[in-house]
């Protein structure tokens, strides 16, 4: 699977500007179940204020990124400690 890395100033979002960081974006196709997609769509309005002005796709990426980071910090690290 080919990865596309986007590193252009035109794609900088408010998320990057507010956190004063540069984010390296990798485009990947992710398939969600209908249930998961509905849950994500329900969550989007609550996180739109954190993300600032961005596209629907960028907001979805932000929420998925936040969820994966949270899962990594809690459940994944806990499972590693149990090994």
Distance between the termini: 31 Å
Order of adjacent strands in the largest pleated sheet: 1-2
The stretches of 5 or more residues where confidence is low (pLDDT under 50) are 4-11
Number of domains: 1
Radius of gyration: 15 Å
Order of helices and strands: EHEHH
The total count of strands amounts to: 2
Briefly note the structural class of the backbone: mainly alpha
What percent of residues adopt helix (DSSP H or I)?
Answer: 55-70%
Percent strand:
5-15%
Biggest sheet details: 2 strands, antiparallel
Plain-language structure description:
- With 83 residues, the protein is mainly alpha-helical.
- 61% of the residues lie in helices and 7% in strands.
- It has three helices and two strands.
- The chain has a two-stranded antiparallel sheet.
- The radius of gyration is 15 Å and the shape is globular.
- The protein starts with a strand and ends with a helix.
- The model is unreliable at 4-11 (pLDDT under 50).
At a glance:
By secondary structure, the protein is mainly alpha-helical. It has helices at 14-19, 34-51, 56-82; strands spanning 4-6, 25-27.
How would you describe this structure in keywords?
mainly alpha; 2 strands; 83 residues; 3 helices; two-stranded antiparallel ribbon
How is this fold's topology laid out?
Elements lengths: L3 E3 L7 H6 L5 E3 L6 H18 L4 H27 L1
Antiparallel strand pairs: 1-2
Helix pairs in contact: 2-3
């Amino acid at each position: 699977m080919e990865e596309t890395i986007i590193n252009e100033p035109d794609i900088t979002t408010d998320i990057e500007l507010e956190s004063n960081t540069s984010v390296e974006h990798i485009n990947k196709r992710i398939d969600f179940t209908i249930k998961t997609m509905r849950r994500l769509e329900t969550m989007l309005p609550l996180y739109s204020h954190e993300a600032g002005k961005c596209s629907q796709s960028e907001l979805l990426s932000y929420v998925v990124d936040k969820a994966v980071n949270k899962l990594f910090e809690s459940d994944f690290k806990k499972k590693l400690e149990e090994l």
